[in-house]
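To whoever is on call:

I kicked off a structure prediction for a single chain this morning and the downstream step that reads the tokens threw a length-mismatch warning. I double-checked the sequence; it's 434 residues and nothing unusual in it as far as I can see. Pasting both halves so you can look.
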Amino acid sequence: MSLFPKPINILFENIDVCSPGDNFHERRNLWIKGDTILACTNAPVKADKDTERIDGKSLAAMPGLFDMHVHLREPGQEYKETIQTGTDSAANGGFTGVCCMPNTVPAIDNAPTVEYILNRGKSTLTEVHVCASITKGREGKEIAPMLELKEHGAVMFSDDGACVMNAEVMNRAFKYVKPVDGLLSQHCEEHTLTEGFAMHDGEVSAILGLKGYPSIAEEIIVARDIMLAAHNGNCRYHVSHLSTAGSIDLVRQAKLRGERVTCEVTPHHFTLTDEAVRHYNTNAKMNPPLRTKIDVEALITAIKDGTVDAIATDHAPHATHEKELEFAMAANGITGLETSFGLSMTYLVHAGHIGLMRLVELMSTMPREILRLPAVSCLEGAKANLTIVAPHEEWTFRASTSRSKSKNTPFDGFVFKGKPKYAVNRGLMWECTL
């Protein structure tokens, strides 16, 4: 077990506390007891005699990491992942909260399914929130009862895994949620341009003889939906797993116009290119596909300049038999909860692109803000919802040690700098075993 077997009563001495929402980043003494932060101070702490003391000089604490785009597969695809194994994987990666996507079986398009998932997530260290469907059955035809789903706890709406292709249906969806200022998100893919795709449409796909997915197929839907959101009175709109330089430019221009558009990027899209597919590695097959070096550079620039609002994993577990196929037939998607922090620290922070404060905004503060969830504080008296990391520790990821039910990752054997150590939430503490 990775959960601490006894009640939490730990004092992290001289730990680097990074908390954008509280507007400070400095070394403090951090005392956690039960589910509460009893002290977060520069002054000495008179802790209980039975308090465990941990030297924090090599550690950092931050508001618990939150992933706003994961696939937990339950109900209906428990052979790939369950809510329990998915949240175990999340905690092992340092996450104290996730939002699960609606491409389950059945789709999350009804109140009982929303309630089932929320109830299953009540006993886990990692909190589970729900993104429900925009359309019934995620078929893109008939609007789902989004107002009812919101009343039952849904925090966002998307047909993720599929795009709402029909502009009239998407227009109706914006009108439907406008009275409650609901948040629509989109998997942006013009399917008539991507049917039968295997990877990004470019030089590598031509060499390998694989059907390509052109960048414009993503950008057409991003542009259309930004226009629809504006047309309906500046509705809230979130672009999922944005992957191209063109999409970045569209979001950047919308923000400059004052439109309420947000976006997320994944670690695999800002670290890998379509070159990873050259040896037909199906663990490098995903949707949207890995793009070019130009796209990677554009994503990193957008992370630096504030255009990107969140880093999300798009954690997409698949069973071995769904990946060990010829490339064109293999399922799209990779796991990501246990590699996200290491990738982000290595390729963003230690690469000199951003600082730790900005990373915490992207992986904790902003996802909660976008979903209008309560902010998490590191101050004395707050509920202990924290991630403890070793920012400079080097480690090698091994897929075999993952707590996910599936092992489909292109990062097996990668060496990272920056490692999650503990996830703390709901009076529970998880020791990461990566």
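Update from on-call: the warning came from a stale cache, not from the record. Cleared it. Sanity check on the structure: The chain is about 25% helix and 25% strand.
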